[in-house]
Amino acid sequence: MNIxxxxxxxxxxxxxxxxxxxxxxxxxxxxxxLDDVKMNGDEAVKRYEERFDHVSLAGLAxxxxxxxxxxxxxxxxxKAALTLAFKNIKHFHEAQRxxxxxxxxxxxxxxxxxxxxxxxxxxxxxxxxxxxxxxxLMLATPAKIAGCREIVLCSPPNREGKIHPAILCxxxxxxxxxxxxxxGVQAIGAMAYxxxxxxxxxxxxxxGNQYVMAAKQQVSQDAVAxxxxxxxxxxxxxxxxxxxPAFVTADLLSQAxxxxxxxxxxxxxxxxxxxxxxxxxxxxxxxxxxxxxxTKALANSKSILVKDTHEAIALSNAxxxxxxxxNTEDYTELASMVVNAGSVFLGPWxxxxxxxxxxxxxxxxxxxxxxxxxxxxxxxxxxxxxxxQELTTExxxxxxxxxxxxxxxxxxxxxxxxxxVRMLNVK
Length: 427
Known about the structure:
Blueprint: E1 2-5, H1 12-15, H2 24-52, H3 64-73, H4 76-94, E2 103-106, E3 109-117, E4 120-124, H5 133-146, E5 150-155, H6 165-174, E6 178-181, H7 184-193, E7 203-205, H8 210-219, E8 225-226, E9 234-239, H9 245-256, E10 263-268, H10 271-286, H11 291-298, E11 302-305, H12 309-319, E12 323-327, H13 331-335, E13 343-346, H14 352-357, E14 383-391, H15 393-409, H16 413-423
Parallel strand pairs: 1-11, 4-5, 4-7, 5-6, 7-8, 9-10, 9-12, 10-11, 12-13
Antiparallel strand pairs: 2-3, 3-14
């Protein structure tokens, strides 16, 4: 990792830059695939599956028999872990239910909101180098709690035309409605536009590579809503002299192994800790199965030495990380100072892996600095708030003159008249 010692504040913006990818040709390729799927439906999706996933599919839908087979293939230990994670995720997200209150804003004027589930949602689950069956639970569980009528899942099949059994098992546990064998841009296009097999949804959720992310952003301009803009995964660890360097290193590597374009940042108040983490990185990297991926990610990463933890949290807020780990003696105080972060892990024992899998919080989070404006996925992500207002004749007397005056001065005569004709009928 690149070590930066005591940077001035005018250097922070440059330090907060993420790795840049050349997307000039990517966008054109993505648009061509999306247009093809929009025009040619299932036939186009199957063609791209053969081209990119090297599998010839007779049909896209996963059958009940395939789901039953997957249940038998998943070990009892993994099934128990999935069930535990589901229980905690369900418990946490059920507590987020919206309770709309009726408010009388003026005499005779009552306003309120009702939370209504998005009827059809699409979940994209990667299945390549790391089949993210945990993401199935993170997305399908709140969708089910929200009351989404149709929960559609797409995931790329292997060369035998099968989706990873743990993905199917998690989908069964969480209550996914329908599952389809489709990956990459073609899966996003199928859910955005609809095909003969895959229903069109109203909002698409889920992570993916740069092609999937580009596809989500493109379809969000003309066809469907998406969960959030996203880029490669990232973590920021704030550590002081009291931290365990083995813990800090493990947390950095747990994020670095996601992909070569991931980024990890260590902000530290103790130079000796920085050196100990560097030594520990060499030891832990040597036995990491995804060593090559993590090594490339570390080339994009930084260890930043700062004067104290208050400066550390200020720098973290400027960076706005997807994941933030506060491994310091004063982590409780620092937690109250967090402004920009997707999910925060407090103290030496709260590793990011806990939130990724089974603590109950959601791991679908804003990346690339979007934590300044976006929340992670939560129950509200699967709902809309419909606003209601009811006026009585007393309400007309309360606000009618103000409405008529404002509409007139905005030169919207029909708006003004809509209120005025009512005012004339109120005694």
